């Protein structure tokens, strides 16, 4: 059974380090320019982007730079400069959506691989072959492509790598060629400034052309989320996907996602891949972890089933659902934590740590770290003392004080707690 690459999002330098700590084989990111992630311009500048490439390579991971926007003529000179600049950072591949940008990248940086973006919407071996001949070493398949089609493409073009999305937000327009934001708010989705209009609730009306009467079609008192796609979750199918041998990379979507999302999704799919290879695949474990994330409800999309066979890919009730757990804190250095929600001395908090992390049990004046029957580690504080010596009764989000842990934890550990109604 072939072991595919696990590719995780790196929305900023911290999320990049978290993805690597939790088991990513490769990460992808951009600096905002010419990608579909304009918010990245606020998260990465050229200096931190170059540092991200260095950190990935130091960890033995690959770094892919997204240049998958659809540029106008007036942007082409700046695009050339951009490609040259980030190529000098030593990125391992460009993720590109258009033939013209592919050609440009080959001219400017011929030694850097090209991965064709899912925006190109490749669904068959004829299109895949054309892009491969043009220089793409990998195709990021359209989300609506089936696993059988992936297998056939691999059989027809063995030298072409295939990458598929395994988790994350799904666009109402499938592979993302959407104009809703452009129509409603002037924000161009295909140039990186999607306003997520498909997540809004809408009221539907019927109008009589005879008399102009307007009637609201009321589904419920809140209106309806008529375009709101559920999130993709292929965790239960990972073993089946690996058995085909057709998929070279499993990609986690991560636009505008949290640090905890980067950690949890990466760890869940790291475990799923490794367990499948080891012959101990257990989908309930990965589902339980992914259910801790905020989501829009989960669907296994179209890789296993054709779109017309599905009737559960939309969430018509709400644009977001709470996960089973709330993240209360994060420890970047393993010595102290910053609060994300609330920490006090009344409750115990589960420690969520990187794959194969070593945690020692301890008890002292600060608190206790211990292992319970569920084979998980927890921490309970006796007192909350900042690294500067200030003591608190409880800590809420927004408090920037770094609070001491009873003992060192692995870097990038989280403290989380199951959401129980009434607490």
TrEMBL record:
Keyword Hydrolase in annotation: yes
PROSITE patterns associated with the record: PEPTIDASE_U32
GO molecular function list: peptidase activity
InterPro entries according to UniProt: Peptidase_U32, RNA/ubiquinone_mod_enzymes
Keywords: Hydrolase, Protease
GO biological process: one example: proteolysis
Domain of life: Bacteria
Recorded family membership: Belongs to the peptidase U32 family.
PANTHER family: PEPTIDASE U32 FAMILY, TRNA HYDROXYLATION PROTEIN P
Name of the featured protein: Collagenase-like peptidase, U32 family
Source organism (scientific name): Campylobacter devanensis
Taxonomic lineage: Bacteria, Pseudomonadati, Campylobacterota, Epsilonproteobacteria, Campylobacterales
């Amino acid at each position: 059974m072939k072991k595919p690459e696990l590719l995780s999002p790196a929305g900023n330098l911290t999320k990049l380090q978290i993805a690597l700590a939790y088991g990513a084989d490769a990460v992808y990111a951009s600096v905002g320019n010419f990608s579909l992630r304009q918010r990245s311009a606020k998260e990465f500048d050229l200096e931190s982007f170059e540092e991200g490439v260095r950190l990935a390579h130091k960890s033995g991971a690959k770094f892919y730079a997204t240049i998958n926007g659809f540029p106008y003529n007036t942007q082409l000179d700046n695009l050339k400069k951009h490609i040259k600049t980030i190529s000098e950072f030593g990125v391992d591949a460009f993720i590109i959506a258009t033939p013209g940008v592919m050609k440009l990248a080959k001219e400017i940086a011929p030694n850097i691989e090209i991965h064709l973006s899912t925006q190109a919407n490749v669904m068959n071996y004829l299109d895949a072959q054309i892009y491969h001949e043009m220089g793409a070493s990998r195709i990021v398949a359209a989300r609506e492509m089936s696993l059988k089609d992936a297998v056939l493409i691999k059989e027809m073009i063995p030298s072409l790598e295939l990458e598929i999305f395994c988790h994350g937000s799904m666009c109402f327009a499938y592979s993302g060629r959407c104009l809703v934001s452009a129509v409603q708010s002037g924000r161009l989705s295909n140039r990186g400034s999607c306003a997520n209009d498909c997540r809004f609730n809408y009221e539907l009306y019927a109008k009589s052309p005879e008399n102009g009467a307007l009637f609201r079609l009321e589904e419920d008192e809140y209106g309806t989320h008529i375009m709101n796609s559920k999130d993709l979750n292929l965790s239960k199918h990972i073993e089946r996907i690996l058995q085909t041998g057709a998929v070279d990379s499993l990609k986690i979507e991560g636009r505008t996602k949290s640090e905890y999302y980067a950690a949890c999704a990466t760890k869940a799919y790291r475990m799923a891949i490794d367990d499948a290879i080891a012959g101990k695949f257990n989908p309930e474990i990965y589902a339980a972890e992914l259910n801790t994330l905020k989501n829009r409800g989960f669907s296994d999309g179209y890789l296993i089933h054709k779109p017309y066979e599905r009737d559960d890919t939309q969430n018509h009730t709400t644009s977001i659902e709470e996960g089973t757990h709330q993240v209360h804190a994060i420890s970047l250095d393993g010595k102290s934590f910053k609060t994300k929600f609330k920490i006090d001395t009344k409750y115990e908090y589960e420690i969520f740590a990187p794959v194969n992390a070593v945690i020692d049990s301890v008890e002292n004046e600060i608190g206790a770290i211990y292992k319970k029957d569920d084979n998980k580690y927890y921490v309970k504080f006796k007192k909350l003392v900042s690294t500067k010596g200030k003591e608190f009764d409880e800590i809420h989000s927004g408090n920037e004080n770094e609070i001491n842990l009873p003992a060192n934890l692995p870097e990038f550990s989280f403290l989380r707690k199951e959401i129980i109604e009434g607490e």
